Amino acid sequence: MAIVSIETNPFSDQRPGTSGLRKKVTVFQQQNYLENFVQSMFNALGNIQGNTLIVGGDGRFYNTEAIQTILKMAAANGYSRAIVGKDGLLSTPAASCVIRKYHASGGIILSASHNPAGPTGDFGIKYNVSNGGPAPESITEAIFDYTKIIKHYKTLDDTDVELCTIGQQSLGQMTVDIIDPISDYADLMAELFDFSAIRTLLASNGFKMRFDGMHAITGPYAKEILEKRLGAPVGTVINGIPLPDFGNGHPDPNLTYAKELVDEMFSDNAPVFGAASDGDGDRNMILGANTFVTPSDSLAILAANAHLVPAYNKGLTGIARSMPTSQAADRVAEKLGIESHETPTGWKFFGNLLDAGSVTLCGEESFGTGSNHIREKDGLWAVLFWLNILAVRKQSVTDIVEQHWYQFGRNYYTRHDYEGIASDSAVQLMTDLEAKLASFPGKALANRTVSYADNFSYTDPVDNCVSSNQGLRIGFDDGARIIYRLSGTGTEGATLRVYIESYQADSTLLHLETQSVLQDLIHLADELAEITLRTGRTEPTVIT
Ligand code: G16
């Protein structure tokens, strides 16, 4: 068990994206690729001697191999303790929970979120800091800087750790604790929500729910919490066994990929409540019988009803949303008289606001919602929050959504994704559009007047760090917006995301079809950025 130093050469493509480093499995399998990134993480963190590290992942292909490599390198680099989920499993929210609970100095999470898995699929790695949240840009950029100059990495010449046995082992000078990946997280959920009210709801006549684990990490968590602790009938959780290739599926909980659930929820015999989570358990999709709740509306509705839930009944301090998320939550914050923040895309931008106590709830259009209970977005938490509201209000999901619109008005909202376009055309499209923005304010377009047009830049109110180049925004005098961004999570070519929103307060116009309502803005978005002309695409790959 000697510590060995291995010579290596830098890779040029290890800059972390929106949420860590995500690449094809085959890229990670290159000799020293993972090792270089992990050593660069440790170098960027500085003094890690004697620290505790949490390690776990979403169970996708290459998870356990990566964990063995990481543990040996952690021991060789001076960590004194590693805490690892049994079988190498930890959902992203559970990892955040245990980092906080065991006062670890940080954690390494292995996941490419909702991206498909398997030998030809995607893999990913990210570092979370001691508050349980994703490392801020200052750390991810420092990691990237080290990846460009790395010459050696340190590891241990030792046998693998037994990941399947709960208990303590040693690896060199480091203690390795294999823990149950579910219980700490499930206990936290029981502290936040009224489990007794939810239990009564789930047992009540006529109430039926379905949760789709999409063969990813949340299946065992959902079975433990919904079926065991809350008494939902066995079978409530479908696709509940995590598989290394996610059953060849695409565990992205949206209307396109959660097809089995969506078909059931829009059938004649639909359950009252349906939900799904993603590969690593941090995303959520909420459905009622024949109703899809947009993630932006879901955030607003959770905020407006938070007083009904034990953990939040003393009030919220504020709400934060990512810039492209609809402005629905802002209206709730205004009514509650609390702070409201607009941050760039990426959960890491919520960390400082949560730590400072400026906000209690956060959310993103990309099916992410969470609160100050941890520092990641949390899929099952959102499901339990909705169940708690349903248990207290005793109304259907549809009624709750409609009443919300009557009270606050409706932000019609859609996202159009153009996936797999050539990276240089995508960058050129954004550059050329940005050059035109200054001429837009004051112009009449799509029967509205442009109020502002800019490239979103964010100054963190806590540490004053500036994050620029966060998406092109065109805002109109009636509150409508068109936003363009290039995704930071894809692994092939570029994905252009176009986010379109328009507000309606007239109570006779709240039940229209979203794409039709937004038709003029959708056309305008194409025309201004010349999407069809430049990409040859006549329609988006995914419409949400
Ligand atoms: C990650 C981030 C989210 C972000 C999402 C989409 O989610 O944590 O904050 O909204 O990616 O990012 P992009 O639009 O750049 O693709 P996840 O669930 O993939 O980890």
Mean pLDDT: 95
- Provide the helix percentage: 25-40%
Strand content: 25-35%
Based on the coordinates given, report the CATH architecture of the largest domain. Answer: 3-Layer(aba) Sandwich
Amino- and carboxy-terminal Cα gap? 52 Å
What strand order characterises the main sheet? 2-6-5-3-4-9-8
Q: How would you describe this protein?
A:
The protein has 544 residues and is α/β, with parallel strands linked by helices. The chain folds into 3 domains: 179 residues, Alpha-D-Glucose-1,6-Bisphosphate, subunit A, domain 3 (Alpha-D-Glucose-1,6-Bisphosphate, Chain A, domain 3); 221 residues, Alpha-D-Glucose-1,6-Bisphosphate, Chain A, domain 3 (3-Layer(aba) Sandwich); 134 residues, TATA-Binding Protein. The protein contains 18 helices and 27 strands. β3, α3 and β4 form a beta-alpha-beta unit. α7 packs across α13 and α10 runs parallel beside α11. The longest helix is centred in the C-terminal third of the chain and has 15 residues. It starts with a strand and ends with a strand. The structure holds 1,6-di-O-phosphono-alpha-D-glucopyranose. The site of 1,6-di-O-phosphono-alpha-D-glucopyranose has 16 residues, from loops.
